Amino acid sequence: MKRIGKQIRHVAGMVLVAALLVGCSESMSDLEQYIASVKARPADPISPIPPVKTYTPYEYEGMIGRDPFLQSISEGSDDVRASRGTGPRPDFERSKEYLERYELDTLSMVGTFSNDESYWALVRDPEGVIHRVPVGNYIGKNHGQVVNISSTEVNLSELISDGADGWLVREASIALGEG
After folding, report:
1. Domains plus CATH for the chain?
2. pLDDT tens across 146-171, in order?
3. 162: which DSSP letter?
4. pTM
5. 64 DSSP 8-state letter
6. Mean pLDDT for the stretch of residues 39-52
7. How far apart are CA 176 and CA 150, in angstroms?
């Protein structure tokens, strides 16, 4: 009985394969005709190669420009300070405020808050905590002190080391909705 079932399955499989082969042997003249029509079409024009930009070498003008081996005190400045260590300096004796642990670009102004006598900026730190910041507070890692608060931004005055034992004052701001 098992042997007859195997034979029937074997014969049925061969009949199925034969039927599939008959279906594959049909004429492919319609396919050949389509390929011939596609080959007969004119080719699309090829876009031209973009022109090669010529290299213009930079000619160093020696002593006319800034000496590249001398450190600049600030961006665009060629003056070397005569007296090092003069000018504004951060107060290293004061205790750091909470928002001084974050880079300025990680903080964002989310609004303002005021009452009859005071006006504060609402500043969000990277952890999502919102802080009230009045004028005079310090923010950021560059000794930034809040000098003005408007409804759209917090203006700061930062002290940046010039790399030559001095400090430069740089204005910065945090705009509403920034960050």
Report:
1. 106-179 (2.30.30.830)
2. 999 998 999 999 988 877 778 888 89
3. -
4. 0.51
5. G
6. 88
7. 9
